Amino acid sequence: MASSSPSHASSELAMLLLGRLDGLLQNSPWADIWLARARLQGAAQLAGLAGVPIDVRHLQDWICGRTSPPRASEGLNDPVSVAAVFHLAIEASVGDNGPLARATLNVLRTVLDDRSEAEVWAGSDLAYFGPAWRQARIEAQAPYPSPSLPSVADRITAMLKTVVVAEQSAVDVTAIDGRTLTLEPRSRDRAWLVASHVPAMLHHAGLTLGILPSLILLPKFPPHGAGELTDVITRSLLVACQSSLRDLDWIERQGSKALAVSATRRSRAPLLARLALAYPGLRPSAVARLLDVTPQGARKLVAKLG
């Protein structure tokens, strides 16, 4: 019997790891913390695709109140604000109605409401990119012919044509010597809108039980053909699942230390220790809102874990 091709073996391994990650998250007591961290990882990846590269720690600093939105005060000529990318990344996962997804989203928006932040820092960006993002969401949620990566790749290819190509046509310019040159559209500036929906597409296609927001999978310059794109997202999925499994393992090991925090039975210190794995350095004001304690109690909790 002929051996399987490398691409087929890679696809099988990627789907195996995806199933393992998805299954572990259904039963892990630390799935909420993984999901909170995955939202930030996915948003950071999208920001890179949108041409505003940042790290997760930049988002954590913003969420915890230490800074303004990343890059907002640096005087950079960015194609889009990080606040807009972050908001649309969060909104793309709102369709997950699972109790865990809703709870972690409520926690995030209690600390930092991406909706109001986007209105303050990114109103024009939302007006410009919003219609294309909403059109992409409609296409992402449409039924899929089969629960497979090729089906997802076919849909992504169609969405890229709709969102990127249709919105940006090539531009003809005349050189000084009279020649006419055609400048191709900068598709990278809009492909991230499609990439923001990839985690939801995997869910709607039946490949995951919930939306796993760190599975962005697309490169900055996605290929145009569905077959080549299938290979690209297969490799990306394999790497992303391996990274996600390592992160879940790290969270569970660190979590055991959080549960060992010396506290009375009614203390909120263990809960704050859990949250610190996703949002390190929370300010007392945010802790007071999250844990429903007095400002003085919040300061004591922060000092205890510091």
The shape is globular
Radius of gyration: 21 Å
Report the major sheet.
Answer: 2 strands, antiparallel
Q: Give the strand tally.
A: 2
Derived from helix and strand composition plus strand pairing, the structural class reads mainly alpha
How far is the N terminus from the C terminus?
61 Å
Helix-strand pattern: HHHHHHHHEEHHHHHH
- Helix count, per DSSP? 14
The portion of residues forming beta strands comes to under 5%
Give the strand order of the largest sheet, numbering strands 1, 2, ... along the chain.
1-2
Contiguous low-pLDDT stretches (5 residues minimum) are none
Mean pLDDT: 89
Percent helix among the residues? Answer: 55-70%
Please, could you describe this protein's structure?
It comes from Sphingobium limneticum. This is HTH DNA binding domain-containing protein. The protein is mainly α and 306 residues long. The chain has a domain at 29-227. Helices cover 63% and strands 3% of the residues. The protein has helices at 6-27, 31-49, 56-63, 82-92, 99-111, 114-121, 123-141, 149-165, 188-195, 198-204, 226-259, 269-276, 284-291, 295-305, and strands spanning 171-174, 180-183. The longest helix is centred in the last third of the chain and has 34 residues, at 226-259. The chain is globular and about 75 Å long. The termini are far apart. The model has no long low-confidence stretch (mean pLDDT 89).
